[in-house]
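Exercise 7. Given the components listed, write out the predicted structure of the assembled complex. Treat all entries as one system.
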Amino acid sequence: MTARRPTVYDVAERAKVSIATVSFAFTRPDQISATTRERVLGIAREIGYMPSASARGLARGKTGALGLHSFDLLIERPQTREPVDPVGEAGGAAPDPGASFVPWDDAGDEFLADPRAFPLYVDEVQRGFELECRANGRPIMLSSGSGTTTSVAESAGRVDGLAIFPGPSAATTLAQVSLKMPIVLFSTPPGEDGHHRVLADNAGGMRELVTHLVTDHGITSLGFVGALRVADYRERFEAFRETLTDLGVAAPDEPLDDSLLGEDLGYTAVIEALRAGTLPRALVCASDQLALPLLDLFAAEGVRVPDDVVVTGFDGIFAGRLSTPSLTTVRQPMEAMGRTAARLLMDSSRSPSAEPAVVRLGTKLVVRASCGCAA
Amino acid sequence: MTARRPTVYDVAERAKVSIATVSFAFTRPDQISATTRERVLGIAREIGYMPSASARGLARGKTGALGLHSFDLLIERPQTREPVDPVGEAGGAAPDPGASFVPWDDAGDEFLADPRAFPLYVDEVQRGFELECRANGRPIMLSSGSGTTTSVAESAGRVDGLAIFPGPSAATTLAQVSLKMPIVLFSTPPGEDGHHRVLADNAGGMRELVTHLVTDHGITSLGFVGALRVADYRERFEAFRETLTDLGVAAPDEPLDDSLLGEDLGYTAVIEALRAGTLPRALVCASDQLALPLLDLFAAEGVRVPDDVVVTGFDGIFAGRLSTPSLTTVRQPMEAMGRTAARLLMDSSRSPSAEPAVVRLGTKLVVRASCGCAA
DNA sequence: TTGTACGCGTTATCAC
DNA sequence: GTGATAACGCGTACAA
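Answer.
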């Protein structure tokens, strides 16, 4: 079954033409006579020939694909169990002869797909990227990897342009690799590296949010939750402070709690403040993913949100609609960000001259229950 | 900036070694002396060299990547507006010099990310595929395309194995292309084409659902909504009939309504029955995506669900949790299906001898409000 | 341990 | 309109 894949030579031989003709039949249909074209195409289909993208990419100098690389900021939840083994015994009522049957496993489908785990910030951006590429017939190369230079490089070798979700280790790694192709960095402040940027208007969004809390709710005691190591969070914190100052409200010099996603989500500082009775009236979290577990924590501790303390997020992921109370947040236009990145890549691989672009996308305040607005 | 991408020759020249040594430095680090290796690696990093995946794939005969191809069954919603143009004027409060600012646009972010549009069946399967590939350090090639043979072929040339979401046109197209690599077909009944299969236990799930409706709710009048052109739907309908027959309930010979996703979602037959007052007590939909708009329709018509008519779905997508009433359905283990496909591909590219596998994965009945169970 | 030379499957540039 | 043939960049026997 898995014979060698047919090549142009195979087709050429059986069609009694040269390999050039075979190639033309596919790429320049009007340069050869209709009859030979039909014959060649027929043979090709018959023997299951399809051009090798590797060879084509090598010859043409470009692959046609766009890449999306994640410096592991999306934390793979520990797999508690062995992945499904398809070669297992045929249990259950397997109707297909020779089929293996894998029984339902609650653990394998966390809580019937936990919205806290799946459609996250990156997933929605990725989707936008995919949609735009799809609309333009561009294949997408998805890759991920941590610190090592090679992981980026490896995927970079397969594509004509690369969009990157930066992680903590991204900065140093990217600095080493001076990638010779168009690059878009998501959620990274402008810099001198010549790469494009696509990011949300963190400052504007945070300003709207804080203004809402202060002006509409009359809150004058606010704390920030989030680590400043993340560039987006840093921008949000800065805007948090500036807005408070502008509104004449005391602004903290630093975050109340710098719990970081995936590392320690202990909220130790929050808990400490809770015990000490020094919790601010509102906790402004740097992201939804930081805010949602905090809601759990407060629920477990008997602290009522928003009555005892107001909690807000940032990003606008799905899970924020389902939490109790639902989460007041700032929505990033994630799909648009993904689309923008893809277009940037396609444009600049067409005209490599262009200056590196920095695109900020506007955000939107989404008022829900956790600030005390909705029921 | 975008000079030619450096090659092994560039590195070799500057490092005063041969290209073989450069290659070894990357692929067989222990075959060469530490000093030369360091020197080579240093130069490589310095000039921004990265191996070309095209050339490597060509030389090695395999690319290392796995593919996921969608025959456009995921319907791209028509883009009502022009995609975001990053080169737009710098409006708003753009803090970055030279940056473009794209204001928030409600239309560009449908209803703050509509769960009806995004995490669908295919998205969750894709996610499983991604997770498994990521865990094994395998890049993923995402592609999509309709009828034409070339679209599958094109992506097929880039990967060592291909998982496929079949669409209406898939069968004929795939028959023409006898792809010479491991292939996994999702949600496709077993066949003689030598491809692997990964699908849900449609029959078991439907049996559970129908039994619940008949036994627990005492319903004896049921109709099926869904077109039999879709293989999954066909299996579900068959099980629907068989279960009813087994339970001694009259089973319809054919679906009440064969609205098909993306084509006409008119539910003409349902509406007709509604007008005529001949609506069955329960409408069993072939999928959630078929059931949810039906809920809308009934709401608009003043028909109460589940009081006047019971509606159920199949798949267990997110949106079914958010609808009013929430949707009783059968959950497919989509992440597990994606993971299984990836493993199948990796295993069979290692040992091409293996028989084509058929893996059925168990489903789970999810009882919610639309059948009258939950409040 | 390192260098030489060939092959991988296409595309593209020439001749014919 | 069609056929030789030279790149394309890398892996790898084989030789040194």
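Discussion: The longest strand of chain B covers residues 66-71. Chain B has four domains: 8-51, 66-71+118-200+335-361, 79-113, 202-332+364-371.
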